[in-house]
Write a structure and sequence with these properties.
It contains six helices and no strands. α3 packs antiparallel against α4. The longest helix is centred in the last third of the chain and has 25 residues. The radius of gyration is 23 Å and the shape is elongated. The protein starts with 14 loop residues before the first helix and ends with a helix. The model has no long low-confidence stretch (mean pLDDT 76).
């Protein structure tokens, strides 16, 4: 087996190459911008599990569940959020009502689709 001498097999890695290879934790804005709500929920749940539970984290989790069409989970997050001190007033109850409304309108449509 002949090896090419034009290109070395492995040269010393530069500092820039090493930095590129380092894994970076993705940012929430990247997921939301790409409409990857599942990835955003995963990142937010990871933050919540690591004791970084802020009101904004709960708001974003509920927002992502709503946009994924998982209205029950979004409703639960918003209801839990409405009971937390320091949460924006009426935000939890208003969005919980919207989730409930969407869930109620979705059920008849799902039932009609199954009958076809």
């Amino acid at each position: 087996m002949l090896l090419s001498r034009a290109k070395p097999a492995a040269g010393p890695a530069t500092v820039e190459e090493k930095e590129k290879k380092k894994k970076k934790l993705p940012k929430l804005e990247d997921f939301i911008g790409a409409r990857d709500y599942t990835g955003a929920v995963t990142l937010l749940e990871f933050e919540r599990a690591n004791n970084n539970a802020a009101v904004t984290t709960a708001l974003w989790i509920a927002y992502c569940h709503f946009h994924l069409g998982d209205y029950k989970k979004a409703y639960k997050e918003y209801k839990d959020l409405s009971e937390v001190k320091g949460a924006p007033p009426d935000v939890g109850s208003i969005w919980a009502a919207l989730c409930s409304s969407w869930e109620c309108t979705r059920r008849p449509r799902m039932h009609a689709a199954k009958l076809r």
